[in-house]
Amino acid sequence: MAVVVFKIIWYVYDTQKNSRIFLTVTSPSGDISENKISPTTTGYFESFHYLDKYAEVGTYKATAVYKDEIIGTQLFDLVDD
Questions:
Q1: Which of 2, 14, 38, 55 would you call most buried, defined as having the most Cβ atoms within 10 angstroms of its Cβ?
Q2: How far apart, in whole angstroms, are the C-alpha atoms of residue 33 and residue 49?
């Protein structure tokens, strides 16, 4: 079984120096992984999240917060193939 990697991409339009995006990824059982990401000067940011062969099957949720406001949410499903 291989490692699963997913890439999260978003843009923010109001970029300020030292403003960071707070990204959380929540597993199907509620475990939370937290990351702080700095956007580029164009507002682009991305994050890679790795799931190993022991990762839970089910729906994961990624949420990005910028300046205390949710700017995006993505859901994705990990299925047992």
A1: 55
A2: 9
- The span from the CA of 8 to the CA of 62, in Å, is 8
Q: What is the mean pLDDT of residues 49-75?
A: 89
User: Residue 1 has what pLDDT?
Assistant: 46
Going through the chain in order, the beta strands assigned E by DSSP cover 4-11, 21-26, 32-37, 44-51, 58-66, 69-78
- 21: burial class by Cβ within 10 Å (0-12, 13-18, 19+)? buried
Structure tokens of 26?
A: 């929540």
DSSP state letter for 55: P
Give yes or no for residue 81 having a pLDDT over 70: no
User: Rounded to whole angstroms, what are the CA distances from 12 to 16, 22, 31, 39?
Assistant: 10, 12, 26, 8
Q: Which two tokens stand for residue 16?
A: 């300020």
41 — pLDDT class (breaks 50, 70, 90): confident
